[in-house]
Amino acid sequence: MSATLERTPVVTTPGTGRPPRRRWTARRYFVGGILVLVCWAMLSPIIWTAMSVTKPTDVAFLNPPVFFYEPSLQAFVDLWETTQFYQYLINTLVVAVISTVVALVIGLPAAYALARMPGWISAVLLIAALVFRALPRFAVVLPMYDLSRALGVYDTTFAVAAALVAINQPFSIWLLRNFFAEIPKEIDEAAMVDGCSRWQTLVRVIIPLMGPGVLTAGIFMFLFAFQEYLTANILTDISARTVPVFIATQLGQTLPMLQQAGAAAMLLTLPVVAFAFVAQRYLVAGLNAGSVKG
Amino acid sequence: MIRSRVRTAGALALATVATLLLPACGAGSRTPQATAAQVPCEFPAPPQPVSVNVLAYNSSAVDPFTNTMVKSCTKNGLTVNHEPIDFAGQVQKTTATLAGPTGTYDILENYGFVVPTQAADGKIRPLDDLVAKYGAQYGLDQISPAMRKVMTYDGKLYALPMQAQMYVMAYRKDVFDQLGLKPPTTFAELRDVAGKIQAAGQIKYPIALPLLASSDIITAYDSALGSLGVDFVDAQTKQPNFDEPQAAQAFEELRSLLPFMDPQVATFDQPAVQQQMYNGSAAISIMFSGRMSDLTQAKNNRFAQQTAFAAPPSVAGGEALYNTLSVDGWSIPANTKADPELLFNLIAASVGPESSKAAVPAAYPAREGSVTADSSPYAAAALESIGKAPAAEPYPWTSRISNEIRPVVADVILGKTPIAEGQAKMQQLANGVLAQYP
Amino acid sequence: MRRREFLGFVTPSVLVMAGLLVLPLYQTIVWSLQRVNYGEAGEYVGFANYATALADPRFGQAVLFTVQLTVVVVIALIIFGYLLAVLVNSLGRSKPFVLGVLLVSYVVPHVVGGAMFSWLFNSNFGGVLNYAISSVLGTDILWFADAWPNRVMVALNTLWFMIPFAMLVILAGLQSVPEEILEAARIDGAPTWRVHWHVIIPSVRGVLGFVAIISIMDVLRTFDQLVALSPQAVQLGNESVMLYVFNVAFQDGGQQLGLGSAVNVLLIAIIAVMLYPFIRGIAREARHA
Known about the structure:
Strand order of the largest sheet of chain C: 1-2
Number of helices of chain C: 14
Number of strands of chain C: 2
CATH architecture of chain C: Orthogonal Bundle
Structural class of chain C: mainly alpha
CATH class of chain C: Mainly Alpha
Oligomer: heterotrimer
């Protein structure tokens, strides 16, 4: 970690070897101060929502706002007991997990092949993937609405997960392909000389080598699926509703439901915040591995 | 370091698993359905287990009917599903479920404004045969004939009325008493009263109306026009009335309230207007009666005790008030796969005597005699209001014209389009819709 | 790698994308040439929907708004994302913690983040930021009813949930700037800003391009956050192209699926135009990789 500090120009006085200690500290306080401000600004919407949902209901959204109150978790209890929030949470997790796993299972071999086979087919596929990454959601989701009805899978977690696998496939291919490109081809050749087939090489040698890369791609897929609102809103009604859709439908409600919507937002946010703390290491490491040289 | 990470990850995983196992601890144990009234709901058990989906937005007035239906009729192998949704969501889901050969929902919460349009398109099922068959069993003759008429198109009933909603004015009695004011009965008085409250300095914007530009604003304009004695369309000649002087007057009258309303009023739906009252930001609000009961709850509203109710004012002193009579009822989509007889049992049970009684004071049930002046703090106001509402326009073009002209109405009320220009545009748009109904 | 192996590896992915992206896209194009309702057979109307869209001032305004938002937000993302990445990169042991905090807005669903943001600004719902600002200025800013304040709020929200990604990617890029180059610049005695401008930024150009390309795609498709932040979007001219599609094709009674689909196709064209320079570079790179 200290190596990082030294090689970063911001904290180094140009022209001198080791910076004088006092100057270094002043800069550090300055940088620290700015970052504290930035962090506080970034968290303010969440802090304020957390305050609103722990206030007594009659002053929850009072204007001018109330700053001092006796916090209560009643809104969370009410949300938990008076709605099917638990079910929505399960639906959201099922969609996120299924779509992540499937996206990786079909994305890994494709990305590997694209990284190992230069030429026009790869170029065309990659460009196509890039264009698909840019497609407006409605252009694919509205037809999917019709399609899922025709196939009888409308309003199922399966339909939402399938849609998200396809929608997120371009991004995962791009990301994974760049990870694979980082691994020298000689390793493949060595493995194949030892008698591995292509498939065995991929599964037994290459994927273990890029461990954190798979994790990075998985984290991205999971987050995208966990957050998705539009697709889930259009493809579900009753039996597969996800938390973002639930919260969106509650925003046009009055008290006490509105406060419960805030509570739902907090319950959805807190686990992903914990997740973010654990995942940040992999996200940086993964992106660092040359994945973004595009 | 590494071990601590592993431990963190382990603790996190454990916490996740624990959370997922938690439902044993009361998740969904107090759903409104679970605590609703139990009423008789009789039907022969279907041969196979059946699941019925109900689309109905949440509000304190609609909930009692929905919840009773879900609670009382989930039995004999029948499961009734209802998920919470707001009004905008209901409107959107209705369009989606009625389109095409199949839909998700088997029972729709519906309102008089859109029933004729859906009926004319064959999207919902006439109910007369079922009313004839089950009328006696559920006492359907007690459902108000006037409200049934609103749900009737081309001589057939397309929705079984559950309740009426009409505009009611809620005001802060303490503020009025302090300034020696009386509830206004005309828009002129309303401006006068609001001006005095404003001058007193406590409340900057005394009036709050639901004028959401993407939705409620058209109902407000319709109410103002109705109070001036004019319909959107002359039903005899099938000519739109937007070129009449009253069409301009309605705009002028609504615009005359702007100085007394929050500058962001065109972003207010009804829950936002309720919030204005909870916050004490406004002293007078006019909304559908179904939103009034929330204002009387001390749990939401610190001013619950100080809030009083009256019929809304008339725009220019005429007999009809600034008012819209909206009848809510249950419809059966034409594309449902479920047995209509079974579905009808459910909706009839939900408007039966017991559940109608249980819905008071939050709602104004369609069952006659459910509401008396002392049923609730706002019952007297509601009773007066319902008697002086402009007549509904039960035609298939009404809701379509409303959708078409709504952005123009919003632009005119917000001062972006001159009144005359807006009128011309509305007339043209309405003629375009009417041309499709030869 | 043999061709047969290659095909075996890419086929599942290609099939999924063909079935669930290309096929729906084809359907969208077909619908864009029809007058059609959900679940019903359409009636071919040629390019009438495109003509309607292009003649609709609302569509023009939606395009203008969306493109302006994209340009402003993407530039801000690159500048602030870079500055933030440099600051975070200089941290020691507190780095993981700061990164965790900064990532929070990235993981919150946009529609939820939009609602949380609206509660900061909405005077009707105790908006604390609005309260603080009006107390200082002595006048109320109409965040939801005035076009420009509303645009600022929407842009801030978009920046709020997109900057973590930009920061993260640029941070990764900064960490792979070769030490020798920095060392050489330092020995020259160049001031900090010159080291950044002449040395670091050129060597992370690819990364900045990647941030730009992803952000352009995402901001052009702005939809979720407007649901909560701009209830009066149509009147303010703050309707994004996607919101316009939603309003004409899915909102109350709006059954103009054909028009909505035509606008979708037009939006794809706009995205393609704005991404063209990047796509060309990538095409060259992909062929030679």
